[in-house]
Amino acid sequence: MKLDDLPTPCLVLDRRRLARNLERMVSAVALLGVALRPHMKTAKSADVARLALPEGGGLTVSTLAEAEYFLAHGFGDIILGAAITPQKLDEVARLNAAGGQIRVVTDDADMAAAIARHPGGVAALIEIDCGEGRSGIGADDPVLLVIASQLGERLAGIFTHAGHSYAARDRAALTAIAMRERHDAARAAGRLREAGHDCPIVSIGSSPTALISGDTAGITEMRPGVYMFGDLFQAAIGTHTRDDIAVTVLASVIGRRPAERRLLIDAGSLALSRDRSTQATAQDCGFGLVLDAGGEPSLGETHVARLWQEHGLVELQSGAVEGFAIGSRLRIAPDHTCLTSAAHDRYYVVDGGEEVVAVWPRINGW
Questions:
Q1: What is the rounded distance in angstroms from the CA atom of residue 69 to the CA atom of residue 44?
Q2: What is this structure's pTM?
Q3: What is the pLDDT of residue 313?
Q4: What's the DSSP call for residue 308?
């Protein structure tokens, strides 16, 4: 089966680029002397996880559906990275009783008390805000010790995420964010230990900061995720190059307007997402960079300019509309691969060419 045989729109994963991205991160984290606990919220695939951790290890997930799926595929050591509610503790306990070691995350003293009371023995990490301003508490916040006391023996460690690293536009800014992420996590862990609490896990990580060398004293693991596939936004901020983007959306030409040099494709907002993250960078790529059927940038800076639910509008920067017959194929490199991939239930896997060598399912939903 070849790409030209596939229904469109669909998700294409280049295994060769994926392997290169995985190896780069394994090497970077090994140099830092910490464990790699990849975040599977982007890939949501056991096949990808096996490549990311060929010798086994722990994973990070975002949803209980992901936790159940990865547990069923042999990955039991899991951190559920989104803060939990009391209503979900029974499900975590059920999965743990089935052989999992699923730890949850909280930044709330009342939730910590609910975790401690739960008969299922669920353990939790305390989330620290290292500058993103989304969730977590400050490393020096007095409530840190309150939460730790509430958790008691259920305390598993410290958890933080430097999501604001995506706003960095140069190496100096990114390094400063990475150093603060590491400092705040280690500082919080030190406060817990000084107060007599065990803190075996000190977990940090985003794809940009995981690639920054420097002091990781006190850190036990990193949780990057989007590095596996890459996207136009990560390429724009320097996490990788465009040639490292491993996931594209295969689309078909369904309409042509020669006078306006426009093509209509069958990949709309449901296949590509409406994420415009590159708009905040020096190179706005619209709703995705248009590549030829082989995944090469032969069309220059041609972008998907407009989206409807099942339609995408391409304004050609090079080449004539007449060169694209109805039914001809294009591939779209995504702005934000996490959201683009979430619209699809499988990967059609290639190995640097147009032959489909595997089909890998992915888990969606919550």
A1: 9
A2: 0.95
A3: 98
A4: -
Burial 223-251 (b: 16+ CB within 10 A, else e): bbbbbbbbbbbbbbbebbebebbbbbbbb
pLDDT higher than threshold 90 for residue 84: yes
Do residues 253 and 265 touch, judged by C-beta distance below 8 A? Answer: yes
Kindly state the DSSP code that residue 107 receives in the 8-state scheme: -
φ, ψ dihedrals at 267, nearest 5° = -110, 110
* pLDDT one-digit tens code per residue, 194-219: 999 999 999 998 999 999 999 999 99
Q: Which class for 34: exposed (0-12), middle (13-18), buried (19 or more C-beta within 10 A)?
A: buried
Tokens standing for 167?
A: 């706003």
* Amino acid, single-letter form, for residue 191: R
Rounded mean pLDDT, 142-154: 98
Cα dihedral 107→112→217→190 (10° resolution): 110
Distance CA 148, CA 40 (A): 27
What DSSP element (H or E) covers 151? Answer: helix 143-151
C-alpha–C-alpha distance, residues 342 and 43, integer Å: 9
Q: For each of the domains in the chain, give its residue range(s) and CATH number, in order of start.
A: 3-11+240-361 (2.40.37.20), 15-228 (3.20.20.10)
Q: How far is CA 293 from the centre of its chain?
A: 26
**What pLDDT digit, counting tens, does each position of 292-323 carry?**
999 999 999 999 999 999 999 999 987 778 88
Classify each residue of 171-193 as buried b or exposed e, where b means 16 or more C-beta atoms within 10 Å of its C-beta. eeebbebbbbbbbbbbbbbebbe
